[in-house]
Amino acid sequence: MVSNEEYIRMVNKAVKEGKFNRPIKVVYTKNRPSIDGQQGVSSHQPYKEYDKISIWQGLPKNTDEKRRYEERVGRKVIDRDRALRHELWHIHKPYASEKEVRHNLETKSLPRELPLKRRFRN
To answer: In 3D, which of 43, 37, 69 has the Cα closest to residue 55?
Structure first.
């Protein structure tokens, strides 16, 4: 099992070696990312040349900051690491539902295998 950063490095290295077709780019934004008219804390956009993951900078960076933030707002929040892992699972299993990713996969660490090679019409 691998960490988020190690998984991204592994996929991007496989792209350079020609074993995979799309690199992963992670962007931290000041505004909340939105897709399909819905605003959230992270989003995944599959482009033809690369997979783009946008994560909101307002999320806590680590567990201590997360705990302080939860006490201040009075509800549960996720940190940047969990949001990144959620979006990486969307890349690894592109046909998995949002419910499956959120409840079953997100808590697991990522596997050492590459995600599915995606095809595009042109």
So the answer is: 43
